[in-house]
Amino acid sequence: MKLLTKALRAKLEANAERPEKDHAPVVKFFGGGACTWLLTELEGDRAFGLCDLGFGCPELGYVSLRELESLRFPPFGLPIERDRHFKADKTLSAYAEEARMRGRIAA
């Protein structure tokens, strides 16, 4: 499965043109059992969003799409996946606040 469709990429790129706005996440990726990414913006290869690597401290930051695409999780070498059914129901800052309280992204 492609991580991003043309429509999702266009939405992420449009959001990057207005970084001052608190966007709702456009896409959710997951993998390895505990890793989750909620992304709101994209410039080139660099995406911005809420990242949770499963260590109990989700954080806002930037991530490389190429690096995400290259990830493989043991024991079977599975790649990350896009949650095709994800629909954001709040802004990124609301997801971040909830994630800080819970110690993980619950989306």
Q: Can you describe what's shown?
A:
The radius of gyration is 13 Å and the shape is globular. The chain has a 5-stranded antiparallel β-sheet. It has 107 residues and is of the alpha+beta class. The protein has one domain. The chain has 3 helices and 5 strands, in the order αββββαβα.
Helix share, percent: 25-40%
Radius of gyration of CA atoms, rounded to a whole number: 13 Å
Approximate shape:
globular
- In DSSP terms, counting alpha (H) and pi (I) runs of 4 or more, how many helices? 3
The total beta strand count reads 5
Amount of beta strand: 25-35%
Strand order of the largest sheet: 4-3-2-1-5
Unreliable residue stretches: none
| Helix-strand makeup class | alpha+beta
Question: What is the ordering of alpha helices and beta strands?
Answer: HEEEEHEH
Oligomeric state, counting identical vs distinct chains: single chain
Briefly, what is this?
With 107 residues, this protein is an alpha+beta fold. Helices cover 26% and strands 27% of the residues.
Give the SSE map.
Layout: H1 6-16, E1 27-31, E2 35-43, E3 46-52, E4 59-64, H2 65-70, E5 81-82, H3 92-102
Antiparallel strand pairs: 1-2, 1-5, 2-3, 3-4
